[in-house]
Amino acid sequence: MKINDIQRIGAINPYQRNQNAYAQIQAGKKGKPKDEVQISPEAKELLSSRTEPASSEVSEARKKKVEDLKNAVSTGTYHVDAGKIAEKLYPYIK
């Protein structure tokens, strides 16, 4: 049996071939492509409506309510109504 390079015509190390192809691609590019995000106009509108209250009255009322809740929790006078919690959870447990 004779062993020679007849069967290996054109056979190149596949790793070397991949490395050469990668080097050629990198030579043509200046850098890695950056990820890009595009936000639709509808999403921008929803975002702006969430962050900007309709009026300052709503904002002031909400701030007062939050402050009242913080004070009640810190003084220990905040009471949780278990019945209301149970009513809200009941449809999910059903």
Structure description:
There is one protein chain. The chain has four helices and no strands. The chain is elongated and about 90 Å long. It has a domain at 54-93. With 94 residues, the protein is mainly α. The protein is 62% helix and 0% strand.
Please summarize what this structure is.
This protein has helices at 14-28, 41-51, 56-75, 82-93. The chain is mainly α and 94 residues long. Belongs to the FlgM family.
User: What fraction, in percent, of the residue positions are helical?
Assistant: 55-70%
Q: Ends: how far apart?
A: 79 Å
Bulk shape: elongated
Reading the helices and strands in chain order gives: HHHH
Low-confidence stretches: none
Strand content: under 5%
Count of DSSP strands: 0
Number of helices: 4
Query: Mean pLDDT, nearest integer?
Result: 78
How is the main sheet built? Answer: none
Radius of gyration: 33 Å
Class by alpha and beta content: mainly alpha
Family: Belongs to the FlgM family.
Region (Disordered): 42-62
InterPro entries: Anti-sigma-28_factor_FlgM_sf (IPR035890), FlgM (IPR007412), FlgM_C (IPR031316)
Pfam families: FlgM
